[in-house]
Amino acid sequence: MSDKRDIEGVSTYEGPAGGWGALGAVAKALSGQMAIGRESLALRRMNQPEGFDCPGCAWPDPKHTSSFEFCENGAKAVSWEATGKRVRPEFFAANPVSSLWQLSDYALEGLGRLTHPLAYDAATDTYVAIEWDEAMRRIGAALNALPHPDAAEFYTSGRASNEAAFLYQVFVREFGSNNFPDCSNMCHEATSVGLPQSIGVGKGTVTLEDFDHCDALFCIGHNPGTNHPRMLATLREVSKRGVPIVAINPLPERGLERFTSPQDPVEMVAGRATPLASTYYKIKCGGDTAMLKGMMKWLLELDASDLSHGGKGLLDRAFIAEHTVGVEALIADLQATSWDAITAKSGLSRDEIIHLAEIYAKAERVIICYGMGITQHSHGTQNVHQLANLLLLRGNMGKPGAGICPLRGHSNVQGNRTVGITEKPDDNLVQGIEKAFGFTFPKKHGHDAVAAIRAIRDGQSKALICLGGNLAVAMSDPDATFAAMRKLDLAVHIATKLNRSHLILAKQSFILPCLGRTELDLQATGAQSVTVEDSMSMVHASEGSLEPASEHLRSEPWIVAHMAKATLPNTRVDWDGLVANYDRIREKIEVVYPAFANYNEQIRQPGGFRLFIGASERKWLTPDGKAHFLIGRGLDEDPLLNTEHLTLTTIRSHDQYNTTIYSLNDRYRGITGRRDVVFINAADLATYGLRHGDRIDVEVVGPTANRDDGQVRAVRGFTAVEYPIAQGTVAMYYPEGNGLVSLDSHDEQSGTPCYKSIPVALKASGARAA
Ligand SMILES: Nc1nc2c(c(=O)[nH]1)N[C@H]1C(S)=C(S)[C@@H](COP(=O)(O)OP(=O)(O)OC[C@H]3O[C@@H](n4cnc5c(=O)[nH]c(N)nc54)[C@H](O)[C@@H]3O)O[C@H]1N2
Ligand SMILES: Nc1nc2c(c(=O)[nH]1)N[C@H]1C(S)=C(S)[C@@H](COP(=O)(O)OP(=O)(O)OC[C@H]3O[C@@H](n4cnc5c(=O)[nH]c(N)nc54)[C@H](O)[C@@H]3O)O[C@H]1N2
Ligand SMILES: [Mo]
């Protein structure tokens, strides 16, 4: 370790995840944002059988939710939505868009809830209040003025309910487009593309019960302490059973190391914590395929040795023979992959990888959980294939206590996909829509998120409708993305809070304020509930109870239906009837998707119901009915990864929700009041002749080094923080690092941007920090 200088806002956090620190953080979040009285009511009704679904993450609810399950980041997400602050038309009148642009993203959202529908007025450079009817009329006219329906892009962020998302896609299909960029394209697209090829379904195969039966658990490339905090309670149970938990991550994440449950008075009072990961290996960013191949290579050795000693081997030969194809090619590929390549790419030693293989081989039932550390690479889909390969070799799919568990991001991103938010419609969808509504639409593929921004950049698409989210800031290459979005004829944002995307002006721009999950949704037939699907394919109802933040808010289904009516004079859909009673929307979903049989009855059961996942029952919905071992490319073919340069990964802080920044702190990583930091290993600092606290520039190297204008992609003047991160890997926060990711830099199979494998070099940027 070098001699560490003191840097403002940088220290070391010694505590566990959870515990008193978490309680304190919630108290602070609540006092800053919430209206007295609203919050206690809201938090008690979160994730209850009859309450609303937490907008924080897609981790499922425990089987018998009887008491409020405490979660620091869930509480923050709720308090952020249920805030007492409002941003009203008077505020917009006094603050032209050009001045709002100067505010930070943090300040923009911090202004509070939007209260009125707004239209941009160029003469005064302000957003002004507009009646709903007038807004819809103008939006419908602008959509109809486009040269063709494919000149519009319809974005979805994964908070929308099944009901809103379904109506949205019906509207857009009837309008005549399949352009559905969505947040999932930037998130788990590698899962949605890779898993169906391997096991016939693009979703996880496990349920929460499986965690009670696994005898090894691998957590690869995700950070549950921050992003899925309710998972910590599950990890704690698994750890208390004495089951090995393996964490694979370039950073030492506190939420994978140890946890004090705020629900456990003894742990809280005694200051005790439960250790989580029993093995923690710091992998080099992007090295997961190499590590997984190494594990499988050693598994083959163990298998051969066991066979030669008269054992029955360590591969599940009966399963492989009955259920899979392609194992020979996988074995040949593993034999051809050298240990030198494996250790160089993964940054792990052969012994470490052998250790992992032994933990895996010893266990009868293994679950692998994974997140963005696996998917956001140019080889993201290949990573997913390798996870499936490893599990299939020992039959760890479709039996109790075993399977694959992608940790979804937004609370209903998985449900949005299930009910039709996809740019690649299939025959079932085309026929289902025809059966339900009596119209057909073209089956050709539309645009995903990257393709949508390119089409806007190239002038092919002239309208952008956003059902939530903050596309401009979430997307790679903000310079190119912002410039593209300024060329639009029409921009419409359905949102709860103001963000930067809303300030990127088109010829006509609208902000349509909607109800949040926590709020009462009253329609003609009374209070409505919506439904959502979690990471484990459980579908359940969510009903808000708070008084809406303003009387002018409308629900997302209402807004979509009225936009459709204003755009489609000859529509075949009874939009008013559907919105009057969301049961009718669910009846239509059931017609299009038979998996939702008895939808309305089923969601009235406490806890809801699970959708059919073939792979959970060893039914492989692939073209040949088998699970597939897939080998993909070799280790040296990823253009963004080579061992000569550093690889930058972009990560979430503890106090952010994607582009929503709750505060500038990142408690578990010891960062307070700032986000302009780059985490670097001591040895890498030395190699670059830098010291902890230096102001540095991070420059992209390799094939995507230059921007369209020829300048080097770089962030400048950030502070180097010496950190126990894997050597060869550096990390900074998202979205601060998005300028380093070219629009062209994405997984070739799934289009997922490479937010986690950016080849970079570091340089001192002049003056040293005080
Ligand atoms: N509070 C809160 N909750 C959230 C969100 C939020 O922003 N805030 N976002 C939601 C959304 S949309 C999503 S998608 C999820 C995201 O949840 P995560 O998948 O946990 O997201 P990230 O913070 O991007 O972190 C990924 C983890 O992968 C590690 N990592 C980075 N590169 C690599 C690599 O190459 N290999 C391996 N093995 N690990 C790597 C990082 O160190 C980090 O710990 O969380 C959801 N929940
Ligand atoms: N560098 C880098 N970039 C990334 C990532 C990364 O790890 N690194 N992660 C990617 C991932 S995983 C994702 S999912 C995307 C996220 O991309 P998005 O989903 O587009 O972004 P969010 O920040 O979640 O969107 C926040 C906005 O949603 C609106 N909102 C909140 N609640 C509601 C609601 O109930 N209804 C409606 N209509 N609007 C609401 C608010 O106006 C808020 O400003 O970012 C991606 N970008
Ligand atoms: Mo995500």
From TrEMBL:
This is FdhF/YdeP family oxidoreductase. The lineage of its organism: Bacteria, Pseudomonadati, Pseudomonadota, Gammaproteobacteria, Lysobacterales. Residues 113-495 form the Molybdopterin oxidoreductase domain. NCBIfam families: Fdhalpha-like. Keywords: 4Fe-4S, Iron, Iron-sulfur, Metal-binding, Molybdenum, Oxidoreductase. Transmembrane segments: none annotated. Residues 646-758 form the Molybdopterin dinucleotide-binding domain. Its cofactor is [4Fe-4S] cluster; Mo-bis(molybdopterin guanine dinucleotide). Pfam families: Molybdopterin, Molydop_binding. Signal peptide: none annotated. CDD domains: MopB_CT_ydeP, MopB_ydeP. Belongs to the prokaryotic molybdopterin-containing oxidoreductase family.
